[in-house]
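Our preliminary data section would be incomplete without showing what the modeling component actually yields. Below, a chain of 156 amino acids is followed by its predicted structure, encoded as tokens that our downstream tools consume directly.
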Amino acid sequence: MAELKAKLQADLAAAMKQKETVTVASLRMALAAISTEEVAGKTAKELTDDEVRRVLARELKKRKEAAEAFGGAGRAEQAAAELAEGEVLSAYLPAQLSDEELAGLVSQAVTELTAQLGEKPGPKQLGQVMKAANAKVAGRADGGRVAALVKATLLG
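Predicted structure:
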């Protein structure tokens, strides 16, 4: 079993004993999403820690989007609940990169691709630069942030 999944299960048991309702709900939801991911496809498989982190990141993104939707609809209480669940999940994810660190990794990816192509990549090579940048970022930044910075770098 993946270490991170085992930690989530242990923390769920501890939260249940402490009667921390938000933590219990968040961890149950996360473990359900992980279980769903494990049985998706033709054969069941055990997820690695990286795959578990990807599932958690996806669930965190859902919580943020739901909080924005509830906030926009004037339902502050529901928005706060979604944000609280998101905070629980974010504790299990690596720290997000700052804008400067992200810019450095994107420029590294552009430099490496420039060396491979023999010329500075343009907008047509967006996919290649994104692939290289996402490999360097490794889930420590939202894909939208990475895409925006790559586009700005290639166009500017």
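The chain is about 75% helix and 0% strand. The CA atoms of residues 10 and 27 lie 10 Å apart. Preliminary results of this kind motivate Aim 1 of the renewal.
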